[in-house]
């Protein structure tokens, strides 16, 4: 089992981490890098449960700090189980075995992080949903494991982070802006017609036009009208906003992979230097 995989998961603490968190994180690294990750995951979760129980009964004075530390380790486990390598697969198998042992029920679509939160914090749905939602948002915003406690504090806590999921829907202008991505896409078909040119107004300032067409019995499309009104063109572009959104998401994913690769190389360099 590779220490590099664990480093990529964000489990190894920085040198300036608090002694308690650093020691506990190092114990998690040791646990997950044993020869049998399938069994290690259950022991890791049991360790977190023990720490959680101690927090609930004895350390309420620093409740938020302890809670954020617990969630940080949950994110560590989540990251360690992501991927197609043998370690990640075995860890996920171990989680499945642990879930079956405990009798928990999940849908096929239940996110991995939600399963981990449920295993650690129990069956209180409201609590599990709150913590899992906050972590999913943090992950979507590419918050690193080591930065999670700081992120939660600076965001105002779990509830404030959760509210981000209810952010306002995109305005018409936002959708039109995203939809304009189709104007730079490859052409589906090219049509040249004197009749179409006669209907086209060169005074229009729109970036595109709407060709109103019907599908004929022979499979062809018959263009019935050229529409150049601002509202019609903008409505058509807004209807294509999902295409633009997908392209934006693809850019974000590419940037995310680049950042992960940079982190992986940095982790390998740190491992070699150790």
Order of helices and strands: HHHHHHHHHHHEEHH
Helical residues, percent: 55-70%
The main pleated sheet reads as:
2 strands, antiparallel
DSSP helix count? 13
Overall shape = elongated
N/C terminus separation: 18 Å
- Count of the separate structural domains: 2
Radius of gyration: 26 Å
Mean pLDDT level: 78
Percentage beta strand = under 5%
Computed structural class = mainly alpha
The total beta strand count reads: 2
Query: In which order are the strands of the major sheet placed?
Result: 1-2
- The residue ranges in which pLDDT falls below 50 over 5 or more consecutive positions are 1-19
Verbal overview:
The protein has 274 residues and is mainly alpha-helical. It folds into two domains: 3-167, no CATH class; 168-274, no CATH class. Helices cover 63% and strands 5% of the residues. The protein contains 13 helices and two strands; from the N terminus they run αααααααααααββαα. It has helices spanning 3-8, 19-32, 37-58, 63-80, 86-102, 112-121, 125-140, 148-154, 158-162, 172-179, 194-199, 230-239, 241-273, and strands at 210-215, 221-227. The chain has a two-stranded antiparallel ribbon with strand order 1-2. Strand 1 (210-215) and strand 2 form a beta hairpin. Helix 3 crosses helix 5 (86-102). The protein starts with a helix and ends with a helix. The model is unreliable at 1-19 (pLDDT under 50).
């Amino acid at each position: 089992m590779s220490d590099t995989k664990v480093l990529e998961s964000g489990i190894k603490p920085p040198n300036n981490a608090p002694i308690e968190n650093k020691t506990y994180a190092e114990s998690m690294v040791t646990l997950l890098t044993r020869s049998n990750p399938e069994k290690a995951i259950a022991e890791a979760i049991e360790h977190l449960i023990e720490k959680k129980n101690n927090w609930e009964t004895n350390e309420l004075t620093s409740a938020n700090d302890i809670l954020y530390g617990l969630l940080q380790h949950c994110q560590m486990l989540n990251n360690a189980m992501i991927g197609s390598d043998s370690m990640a697969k075995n860890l996920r198998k171990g989680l499945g075995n642990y879930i079956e042992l405990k009798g928990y029920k999940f849908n096929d679509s239940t996110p991995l992080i939600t399963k981990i939160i449920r295993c650690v914090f129990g069956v209180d749905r409201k609590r599990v949903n709150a913590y899992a939602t906050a972590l999913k948002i943090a992950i979507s915003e590419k918050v690193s494991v080591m930065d999670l406690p700081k992120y939660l504090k600076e965001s105002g806590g779990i509830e404030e982070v959760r509210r981000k999921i209810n952010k306002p829907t995109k305005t018409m202008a936002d959708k039109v802006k995203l939809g304009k991505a189709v104007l730079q896409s490859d052409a589906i078909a090219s049509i040249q017609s004197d009749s179409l040119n006669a209907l086209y107004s060169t005074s229009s300032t729109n970036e595109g036009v709407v060709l109103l067409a019907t599908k004929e019995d022979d499979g062809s499309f018959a263009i019935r009208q050229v529409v150049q009104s601002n509202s019609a063109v903008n409505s058509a572009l807004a209807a294509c906003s999902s295409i633009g959104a997908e392209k934006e998401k693809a850019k974000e994913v590419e940037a995310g992979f680049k950042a992960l690769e940079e982190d992986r190389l940095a982790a390998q360099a740190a491992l070699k230097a150790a």
